[in-house]
Design a protein that fits this description.
alpha/beta, 3-stranded parallel β-sheet, two-stranded parallel ribbon, about 30% helix, globular
Length: about 130
């Protein structure tokens, strides 16, 4: 896998290593402000780490361009609009797609993940501990 593009919606776009020091010397990439169509033209797969509610606005454009999407938001994790409303206390941004997307939890859905073009996943991120 080759990382080709990092996007940001913020005006200030420092080098990736200044935001994520563990990538220093491993990824020489700056952040860019790009729309979904441009991102799709540069990538076969997009890892979307957008705020909840935003992925639903761009995922259809990425998928229409043939780009696979791995989504870290909650936009497509649940199966129906009623459950979405109950747990997230807001309307689902793309209710028609709920329950149609393969949930990217390999322990439960390994076979379905292999051919899926769209995967909402749950990420467990551990922050490094720093000694003082």
């Amino acid at each position: 896998m080759e990382i080709t593009t990092l996007t940001s919606r913020q005006d200030e776009r420092p080098h990736v290593a200044s935001v994520h020091p563990s990538l220093a010397g491993r990824l020489d990439c700056g952040w860019k402000i790009l729309n979904a169509v441009t991102v799709a033209s540069r990538a076969d797969c997009v890892f979307s780490c957008l705020p909840h509610g935003v992925t639903a606005a761009i995922a259809p454009h990425l998928l229409a361009a043939g780009t696979r999407v791995v989504d870290f938001s909650a936009d497509y994790r649940l199966d129906d609009a009623e459950t979405f409303q109950k747990w997230l206390r807001r309307e689902a941004p793309d209710a028609d797609q709920l329950g149609k997307v393969v949930y990217g939890l390999p322990e439960l859905f390994r076979e379905k993940i292999v051919g899926a073009s769209w995967l909402p996943i749950r990420a467990v991120i551990r922050r490094p501990r720093f000694s003082r």
